[in-house]
Amino acid sequence: MGEVVYVSRCRIERKLGPLRIATIPGESQPVVFSVHGAIAEHYKVDPAKLKDSHASTIDYVIAATAG
Fold it and tell me: How far is the C-alpha of 14 from the C-alpha of 66, rounded, in Å?
């Protein structure tokens, strides 16, 4: 194995239900994760009861993979 060139230091804080706040290197502001639409329904979260709908972690993974 080669030399480690980077270690990402992220911090995730769970707020309420699916709402999470992430501190990620390279971002000046925290990133907000939650659920929305079909993802909320899959996890049995009533979309009408979400205070704020945000992108889910899977949305970020797909965007990063496609990017």
Answer: 27
> Considering the entire predicted model, what is its pTM?
0.74
**Contact criterion met (CB below 8 Å) for 55 and 36:** yes
What are 13-33's pLDDT values in tens digits? 999 888 999 999 999 999 999
* Token pair 């797909």: residue: 62
In what side-by-side order are the strands of the sheet with 11-14?
11-14, 20-23, 31-33
Helix ranges (DSSP H) in the chain: 37-42, 57-66
- Quickly tell me which residue has 């909320």 as its tokens: 40
State the pLDDT confidence band at 66, using cuts at 50, 70 and 90.
confident
Which tokens hold the place of 58?
Answer: 């899977």
